[in-house]
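Worked Example 4.2. Read the sequence first, then its structure tokens.
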Amino acid sequence: MNESREGVNSVQAIDSDKGFSLIELLVYSLLLSLVIAMVGGMIISALTVSDTVVSMTRTSTAGQLVARSVVTGIRNSSDFRLTSPVDDDQLLVARTASFDDTVDWRCLAWYYSPTGEGAVWFTSSSTAIAPPTTADLSSWTLLTKGVQPASGTGIFSALNERLSLSILGLDGLTLPIDIRSSATSRAGASGSLACF
């Protein structure tokens, strides 16, 4: 009887010492590696898509900022003038009125330069605005960079009292974002300020 107990104990000892074989460990490691690779691929894909969406949103927001600024300024203007002071650069100057207790006339200007980074600047003044030099642009507000015309050589085009804006925002990651808008000035309003 002792021998049968010893035999049972030795079988239990053998069963309790049983572990994973080397082949089982290799198979489990391979399966774990496949799962980690799939999860890692999904995370990398999600991060790439997230970067693309953030870049597109930033570019679209910058383009919309320019469009909103120009359209609001032109709609509130009594007159505007579009010139090309240097090469393909464009200077848009508008005379606008703000109404508090009295009418206050201001000059607003947007400057587009396609060279370099394709930037659009803005300034406001109570005096006439002349075409800026490179040094002058440092005091202007930079609205956006990475802009090019949707067609032609300029982002602005004018016909009578109507101004059109047509830009392609470039973020470097995706296709260009096309932003187009137009506004008509309230021609005929009079005031004493000469902006151009």
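Now turn to a second chain, presented in exactly the same format:
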Amino acid sequence: MMLKIIKILHLIAAGLTYLLALLSKVLVSQKEKEKREQAAEWEAYALSWRVAVEANNVRPWRTVPPECHTHVQTYMSSGQYHSDLDLIVKQILSYAQTLTLSHDGFDAWILDVDDTCVSNISYYQAKRFGCDPFDSAIFKAWIMKGMCPANRAVKVLFDALIERGFKVFLLTGRDEATLGKITTENLHNEGFVGYERLILRSPEFKGQSAVRYKSAIRKAIEGEGYRIWGNVGDQWSDLQGECLGKRTFKLPNPMYFIS
């Protein structure tokens, strides 16, 4: 009788063990499903957010939303970002090839520097691709290394513009006094040679918005007699204000916003 009871108890224990294992599996499956649904929801939101950012419908913003981190990281690192640059540069080159240059040497083009000519992805990778607040001291230390790599597609554009005979102006918000030398060297080392002028922010423009500062510089360039045929930048503030040129071209950058 006792053996029979023990056997029954063993069967009951085995059944309970099976039920607990089954329940655990169901719970794990449910959690995984919820995670997948949450990830899909965040991905959809992040894609919409990035499109809205590029369309300049989200402004101003200080950091990338945390739920967009994986999306922006993947976008910047998987190759899609560079594919987008390639496509945009092809459009710019198609436009440039339709232009007839004069013989007076005053046909100009303007290119931004940071995340246009050269890339700061390595800095932003350490800042979770913009999810962490911008740190001017750390960013300056990064710049001072002189290791910003060229954006390959924009380097192709730069070379083509120089070859066509455009006078290319490199216009940046970097501080002239502290970053002028290292910026010049970095650009030279990355093959940006033959441009007309590198213009950095001088003391007279300190504290001014990017729109106001770059508008003033473009106005001065036109005041010298130059015709600005194209203007390329990764920030909308590169492409707003006065004396924008005949056409503007926005490069993608979902990592930060400059007003």
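Notes for the reader: Residues 2-54 form the longest helix (53 residues). The CA atoms of residues 38 and 250 lie 32 Å apart.
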